[in-house]
Design a protein that fits this description.
CATH superfamily of the largest domain: Histidine kinase-like ATPase, C-terminal domain
CATH architecture of the largest domain: 2-Layer Sandwich
Order of helices and strands: HHHHHEEHHEEEHHEHHEEHEEHHEE
CATH topology of the largest domain: Heat Shock Protein 90
Strand content: 15-25%
Shape: elongated
Helix content: 40-55%
Number of domains: 4
Structural class: alpha+beta
Strand order of the largest sheet: 2-1-5-4-3
Number of helices: 14
CATH class of the largest domain: Alpha Beta
């Protein structure tokens, strides 16, 4: 009971103080009056003090006013987080990982989320979007959405500064209970979803199928032609039969090699995310590769010079795949660098952070123009297609090398200049 009484008394005190604070202007005026009476009317100090205290008591005991009681009785509402004090649409846009723009009814940019500012640094808040993004299809989609109040979707293709594709959705933001056309504060949200990676994968797949079909169609057409000849005019010509059968065998070997390379590339890509766990002696592997290609080197009149450092040369990897890497590189050096009369193969410490060994294959042939170097690891890329086919190349060797090196968490470096041959470095951990 005493506690309840104490709380009630405290509340009354707070209310009295609140009333006094609310009437501070009146109190100041009354205090001035009493001071004037004290100085000029002969009022005694004791009388002035008693009168002022009586006035204070009267104000404190005035009937309660609803405004004051409400302020004192109800606690202040909790402060909202800073992020929620702004426009909810802007807060939502900033939460998206894709670029997002918010426009008003005139197409003026109200807000761009961080992803949009990174992708479109030229956009400026307060300016019409058409000032910075002049793509006609995008401008038309925004105008159509503003006129109709219906969501529009387009595919945006940009070529500057680099080629990109985006799916753009222009969505009117309709507020509940309000008509779109009568709402003076109507807004649009423009979102961008990147399609660049999908487009590039689709293009690569189409190119791969077209190139593979072309590479197989040529030898198949040759085989069919020679078979028809052997079944017809050359049926009883022993010399022609022997000549044609030799050509047919070469074409069949070419198709077989192409299919083997395609299957090898497919297997490598399938397991590219799985890091090998075997232990390999690189020095012994390189000697084995050299011995396996000695017959081919002698036929091309090319000497294979090998230089291996004396230190430890063990690495983690797939022995069969690394054999294929160095066999492909040395085979290319013999085929295309035969004019240099010798090919160099070396193994040394990498001298590069994150890698322990570097295997280098150098030929002293004609070399290639610098603009071709970045594309040499593309599938079916050839500088001279006819010369490559005559040398039984499939155009997949360096693509296979690149994928195997990537699987081993290594790095491939190719350098070449006309007249200076080609240098290929394979860095391995």
């Amino acid at each position: 009971m005493d506690e309840s009484h104490s709380r009630s008394s405290t509340k009354r005190h707070h209310l009295a103080l609140a009333r006094l604070r609310a009437q501070w202007g009146l109190l100041a005026g009354c205090a001035g009056v009493f001071v004037g009476l004290l100085l000029f009317a002969g009022l005694s100090p004791a009388g002035a003090l008693v009168g002022f205290l009586a006035m204070l008591t009267g104000i404190a005991l005035l009937p309660a006013t609803p405004a004051i009681d409400k302020v004192e009785a109800e606690p202040a509402p909790p402060q909202l987080p800073l992020a929620l004090q702004g426009n909810p649409v802007s807060v939502f846009a900033d939460a998206l990982i894709d670029p997002c723009l918010v426009l008003d009814r005139r197409g003026v940019l109200l807000h761009a989320n961080p992803a949009a500012r990174r992708q479109f640094p030229g956009v400026t808040t307060g300016n019409p979007l058409s000032f910075s993004m002049r793509n006609p299809e995008l401008v038309q989609a925004i105008d159509a959405a503003l006129r109709s109040g219906v969501t529009r979707s387009i595919e945006l293709h940009e070529t500057v500064p680099s080629e990109t594709w985006d799916k753009v959705v222009v969505a009117p933001l309709s507020r509940p209970g309000m008509d779109w056309f009568s709402d003076e504060d109507r807004q649009l949200m423009v979102t961008f979803q990147s399609l660049t990676d999908l487009k590039r994968v689709e293009a690569l797949r189409s190119d791969f199928i077209a190139n593979a079909s072309h590479e197989l169609r040529t030898p198949l057409a040759s085989l069919l032609g020679f078979i028809d000849t052997l079944l017809g005019p050359a049926a009883k010509d022993a010399a022609a039969r022997e000549k044609f059968l030799g050509i047919m065998r070469g074409q069949a070997e070419r198709m077989s090699k192409l299919i083997d390379d395609l299957l090898s590339l497919s297997r490598i890509e399938m397991h590219q995310h799985v890091r090998p766990t075997g232990s390999i002696d690189l020095a012994a592997l390189l000697r084995e590769v050299r011995e396996g290609l000695m017959t081919q080197a002698k036929a091309a009149d090319v000497e294979i010079r090998i230089n291996l450092f004396a230190g430890p040369s063990t690495t983690i990897g797939d022995r069969g795949q690394l054999y294929e890497v160095f066999e492909n590189l040395l085979d290319n050096a013999i085929k295309y660098g035969a004019g240099g009369k010798f090919v160099e193969v070396s193994l040394a410490p990498a001298g590069r952070p994150g890698f322990a060994h570097v295997v280098t294959v150098i030929d002293h042939g004609p070399g290639v123009e610098p603009e071709h170097v970045p594309r040499l690891t593309e599938r079916f890329y050839r500088i001279d297609a006819d010369a490559s086919r005559k040398k039984k190349g499939t155009g997949l060797g360096l693509a296979i090398v690149k994928h195997i090196v990537n699987r081993h968490r290594g790095q491939l470096s190719i350098k070449s200049k006309p007249g200076e041959g080609m240098r290929v470095d394979v860095f391995l951990p």
